[in-house]
Amino acid sequence: MKKIRLSTSHIIMLSFLSAILLGSLLLALPVSSASGKAVPYIDALFTAGSATCVTGLVTVPTFSTWSVFGQIVILLLIQIGGLGIITVMASFVVFMHRKLGLSDRVLLQDAFNLNTLSGLGAFVRKVLLGTLLVEGVGAMLYLPVFIKDFGLRGIWVSVFNSVSAFCNAGFDIIAEDSLCRYATHPLINFVTAALIIVAGIGYIVWWDVLRVLKDPKLRRWRHLTLHSKIALTTTAILIFGGALLIFLFEYRNPQTIGTLPLFDKIQSSLFQSVTTRTAGFAGIPQQHLSEGAAMVSCLLMFIGGSPVGTAGGVKTVTIAVLLASAFSTVKNKNETVLFHRCISREMIGKALAVVTMSALIAISSTLLLSATIDAPALDIAYETISATATVGLTRGITPLLNLWGKLIIIATMYLGRIGPISLAIAFNIRTKSPNLIKNPTEQISVG
To answer: Is the dihedral of CA 212, 217, 221, 226 positive or negative?
Structure first.
């Protein structure tokens, strides 16, 4: 009998699928429901899929549907989904003072999309400790507000919100309208946005920034790696550029920020710009956004955060590399250069593949969902892009989905979370021998 060998991409896909199915079975139990009656399995599956894929789209309100047990299950799925199941498993091995085997290292390399196998044990340890530290600080900062508003339950709300924000999940147990009641609260806005941004820039940027800050001999910006420079610069441009566009589009919209004082308009616009980049917390009602602001939000959702973090989307570095390559082609240059460094053709090809595959997933999901629900095209596209980029924002159609619509969004969240490259590799049919025959080259017209 021939032994089946799974690639790292297959293992990553199956691990997420296993977590979703196990979580759905737990959430389908009566003990997980606040009413004591079992929630329909499709809604349990949808919630488990959304939590594990750190998306935040829900068909039933999280704060009122689930018991404390159900909320704990959701929070564990969020934490596992945010860190990655492979990382969680490797963390147990590392903290039991056991060495990671070669297969474990290969899995971690693929899970984090790293370029080296060296130092992965230390990397896992730093990731886990750094995550718990930042989530703990976030929970402590939330406490004064949430204890005042919810009493002792505010402790649980603070922990849940901090983990959800750090993992860019968008789940909350506050109200059905997410964080809209705190739209003008500076502390809640700042802490939530800070957790989203810190987790979204990626772990390798963390260690690179700390490395430079620790050594007084190093010139701060100059000695950062190229990856860090691209991630930080693109993140800043997207946050402030997106906030400016949302501010201009929504300035006079009475259903969003039109009636707010200037300072509150600014902070609400900034929060919307931050949360659209895969976090999914709603500070203002998404269904009331103007078409211009909704389209800006779709673009920000599609791009998402940075690599090797908890954020989804095609990633900031990917977009920066593609834009740089496009401008180099327009200027008739042979090299693609960012911050005085050349970008390899392999990286450009990978960036193009990521964006193309993600776009195909979003477009296919949009077309399929359009056949199952009667809703404006923009609302449907908003929903599917949100699912593809694992954001969790909706313009109000998630609770209206029928069975087929729910299955489509579950599949979209799953494909968006495991990543288009992992998906393509997993289904790639390898030939037994390399192709030694090259086809002839012929010129075509493009553009």
So the answer is: negative
Q: Which domain holds residue 22?
A: 8-423
Q: Whole-angstrom Cα distance, residue 438 to residue 146?
A: 65
Rg (CA), the chain: 22
What are the tokens at 308? 């090797």
Find where tokens 């004591």 sit.
36
Residue 58: partners with Cβ closer than 8 Å, 6 or more residues away: 46, 47, 50, 171, 398, 399
Is 444 a member of any domain?
Answer: no
* Domain assignment of residue 436, yes or no: no
Give the C-alpha separation, 204 to 220, whole Å. 16
* Res 125: pLDDT: 76
pLDDT at 60: 92
Position of tokens 């004064």?
Answer: 144
- Look at residue 338 and give its three-state secondary structure: strand
pLDDT at position 430 is: 47
CA–CA gap between residue 296 and residue 276 (Å, rounded): 9
Domain count, the chain: 1
Nearest Cα to Cα of residue 303 among 282, 273, 324, 325:
273
Give the Cα separation of 390 and 393 in Å (integer).
Answer: 9
| Residue 91 located in a structural domain | yes
42-93 confidence digits (pLDDT tens):
999 999 999 998 888 999 999 899 999 999 999 999 988 887 655 655 554 4
Q: Is position 434 within any domain?
A: no
Q: What is the DSSP string of 8-43?
A: HHHHHHHHHHHHHHHHHHHHTSGGGBTTSSPPPHHH
Instruction: Give the tens place of pLDDT for each residue, 326-383.
Output: 999 888 888 888 898 899 888 888 889 889 989 999 999 999 999 999 999 999 999 9
Tokens in use for 192?
């939530």
Where the chain has pLDDT below 50, the residues are: 1, 92-94, 97, 102, 104, 107, 110-111, 427, 429-432
Tokens (6 digits) for 138 = 């976030």
Interatomic CA distance for residues 393 and 382, integer angstroms: 8
Looking at residue 431, its pLDDT comes to: 44
Amino acid identity at 350: K
Q: Which amino acid is at 373?
A: I
